[in-house]
Amino acid sequence: LLSFSCLGDCQLHTSCGIQKCTTDFVSFTSHLNAALEDFDLEFCKALRAYSVCTYRNSKVCRGNLVYHSAVLGISDLMTQRNCTKDGPTSSTNPEMTHDPCNYSGYTEARERHGGEKAPPPTYLFCGLFGDPHLRTFKDHFQTCKVEGAWPLIDNNYLSVQVTNVPVVPGSSATATKKITIIFKSYQDCTDQKVYQAMTDDLPAAFVDGTTSGGDGSTRSLHIVEKVSGKYIEMHARYIGTTVYIRQLGHYLTLAIRMPQELVMAYEESQDLQLCVNGCPSSERIDQSGHLPLPVMGKLLPWGAAAHPLSGYTLETATTKCHEKMLVKDTYFYSCVFDLLTTGDANFTAAAHSALQDVEALHPRKEHWHIFPRSGGSSVGRDSKVFVSLEFLCLIFVAYL
């Protein structure tokens, strides 16, 4: 290959810059993940930059086999990925640039400029579903009353507010009927965008009718409709944040993943955030993670069959929830609690979907399942402490 390249003017061929073109392409694409939604967009930008670089070297590289192989390879890859020849390209200096509208790209740029390898960003998860049950960013699991409008998140980048209404007459248990999300304006990535969902109105667009924020080609913020009127996702690439909203029955559920450093970017006046600090003690229904099973106002004799107004007994509710959830974790017990409280089987689907959202968004698999606690330590998945019929003899005054 070397002797072939030196036929004619060897000095001319040593100035061929194909190796630099290839090195830059590798730098552009080495951090990309094919599983992420913006992979094709970024890969096509890198391919166009690679193509531009080879074109600039076409004269000095005309006798270089590596050059001609690269040109053919670029053409094949652009066809495979449906890349257009015209469009944005990656920077010609990948070591000194970053995409300000890509949170992962921003953290990598900080690593390059700092000279030392920075730890990968830490992501946190928060979810709200059912009657309502809250999983905080600290992986604390709570069941709360929180009737009316409450802030789940309120930081420098994002605000999320939920509105909860009573689900059973005479009970303080509530469920979510309305969700309002404000993506705050950020550099050139997006102007402020407001999203609002209500029962039977789960739009696939922001309040202003748009489906994305900022430059449409970068897709730094956009909405994806998964199931019409029932399930949407919001992807805010510039802050590394993903939001899922579902409607199950008459109520809404929410799940969110966000980088820890952005979650903690708030002022003292913004400290009332259920996802960050949990529910106020006066709003808690559970007792340190334990959910007393409601029996709608009666002390039952030991061993008597419980027939709450919901129409479910402890046995039938347990069987119903076990159909969708095999692991007896807090999601399972929340399902049982909701069925005994409301009699609405849609809450079974809500608990199951909430667990699916955890598996999709929570960064640590070993923390997907949360189990009831006793005396400060974890209780196994078949904990008799939690599911004992003794709970049927309790009247939870705060709940009724």
UniProtKB/TrEMBL annotation:
Residues 16-85 form the Repulsive guidance molecule N-terminal domain. Its main location: membrane. It is a lipid-anchor; GPI-anchor. Residues 123-363 form the Repulsive guidance molecule C-terminal domain. It is found in: Cell membrane. Keywords: Autocatalytic cleavage, Cell membrane, Disulfide bond, Glycoprotein, GPI-anchor, Lipoprotein, Membrane, Signal. It holds the Pfam family RGM_N. GO terms for biological process: BMP signaling pathway; positive regulation of macromolecule metabolic process; regulation of primary metabolic process. One of its GO terms (cellular component) is plasma membrane. GO terms for molecular function: coreceptor activity. Belongs to the repulsive guidance molecule (RGM) family. This is RGMB protein. The gene is Rgmb.
